[in-house]
Amino acid sequence: MRYEIDQSIKIEDTAKTTYVALTNSKDVIVSIHAGEKKKLKKYFRSLGRPLTFKLFSFSALCAKALSLSKTNREDLIVIDIEYPGYNRNIKSYINSVLKFHALDTPDMVFQEISRHSRAHKRVYRAFKTKERCVAVDAKWIIKLTGCLLDA
Q: Which of 44, 98, 110, 126 sits CB 3.0–4.6 Å from 131 for a disulfide?
């Protein structure tokens, strides 16, 4: 089965809530509040890994959406290119988080997702309406940094 992932509001924009949508026959929206992103930014800075802040946080949101939709190895996940040049890192982080939770790692590809795609429309609507969805906090993502050793 084919799924698409898109993001509205970049992780590094710590003034607004970020939403990540995974769409197929069922939509899954995951968000992280601006205040939680500020905590994460501070945490990753203290580790001397400020770039990892945005890449790992985005990957964690994607992995959360994948786990909620119960994807499996046969599925194809198309992820919008949010951070050009870092697709390999993001894929590695997503796989690490999924393995950390003992979940299957589906096949992932990165390509531009058009404004007309369901994922884009869904995540944009969630952002505009400040939709209630599955919220992730900084504490959860910090706990997941234990799997960075494997990435």
A: 126
